[in-house]
Specification:
The protein is α+β, with helices and mostly antiparallel strands and 516 residues long. The protein has 13 helices and 28 strands. The protein is globular, with a radius of gyration of 27 Å.
Length: 516
Amino acid sequence: MKKRISKLILFALIFVLSACQLEVENEHQPFMLSLSEDVSIELPSLSQPSHTETIDKIHAVDDIYVFDVEGGTFTITKRVIDEDTMLFFEAVQTGERPLHIPYTMKTATETYSFHPFAQPIVEEHHDVFGIDYTTNLKGYVQSDAGEWIISQNYRSVPRVMEYEDGTTSTVRHLVEEDDGLTIALDDDELQFQQTIETSHVDERNEQWFMFSSEPLFTSELWEEYRDETNEQFLRSAKWLTPTGIYTKLPWSIEPATQLGYGRNPQLMQGQLFLDYYEREKERFFYNMIVHSVNVLMDYKGDATTFYTEYTSTWLKKEYGITAPYTDTRHNELISLFLTNVRPYVQDEALESIHLLYADFLVEQAEQNNTLPTENGFYILDYFSPTQTKPTHVSLNHALGELHYVLQAYEASGDQRYLQLGTMMKNAVEDSGTHWIDEETGDLFYRIAADYSYGGTDYEQLTLRDLLTAVEDFRRLDIPYDDVFYTLIKQKREFLQQQQIPLKEDIKEKIKALELQ
């Protein structure tokens, strides 16, 4: 009798435990996210997010899903741009336990084609950047159900240096680039599969996709873009996040790491995408333009300029400058992009943003943060509350600022910008042939606060800036000295002596200006 009761109790316990297990299994529904009627992504180890948020952006909407997982957090940002989607994953390990988050993206289709972007790079050590251990995007996928651009996975650890005044310098130390995503067609179902993993405390693993039900490219321009970004891999937009683009940083950064990556403000602007888009109105380039606008505006926040968030040890040693600081060249290129993009991305937030930096330069001139010459002045290259003395002025920065303020004048009619541009032009004319290095035949890179000239000029960047200045003077009917032609001629002769061919856009400028 006792054995029979024991068996009944045992059966009852098994029944209860089975029911509980079934209930738990029923409670755990894998998280599913739809990208379109035909495309969905499943994350079997995740259930309901602990936090969700929707944020209206410029020509986009972000849906953010945050999951608390054992050992860390996992965040999905779905950025919808018109009818297309950019999808961002970020796994952050906060404890000792590594994260393993598998996912499958799938859609019904009979055929597909995969075009790899990443190519093996035999890279020599760069004098400034060392070696960039990231490659290009994983590739471009075409199918009947839609098209994708797929990134690699980027595993990194943030490193932060805090200064006595409470400011910080922030970089990312690269752990590795992970290209483990697989693409396969099984029973007329296309599947993208990967497990997002971390292995260190504070490590994060980031990946992004772009998806469209329509063709991302209607031409073969993607091949040119692929080839250009493989050639210019140090500057290419491959490691994208919802808040910025990470690229290889020089070795001379603080905190120190030879594998340092960061949000270089200049490389977050999307002029390259705009140039391509003006050639061919491809969806991929439009989406990248909108993404670039949003990361720039979020990065700036309420600040008056686009600050650099990591410290250059060279600037710190030379001038006492630490992050955050203002780099004039970066701000000039960002402001030009935001000016040029307005016909395609119209938004109230962008109505006067293109004049923000022009006003900053006017303010610097009014505060005499300049290097005076006989008839004009240069505006210094860098500004920071921590700097101990005035910085130098590089010729390419000076010419870039000149072009920017003249464009601001042309767009607004504000005489302050024309007056500022005139003083900048006069400064170059006052310096004249002092910019020529008689020993090498090249141009000098910079003029210091003591009016000494030195440094090695960029290969062709300054030549392009000189030609652009002449274009501006002619278009706006601004008188200018022949010394601009002298500097252009000197640089061309130097490049010819070094057997360095001119870039195509520079050839076009020379031809348009009839300087053959």
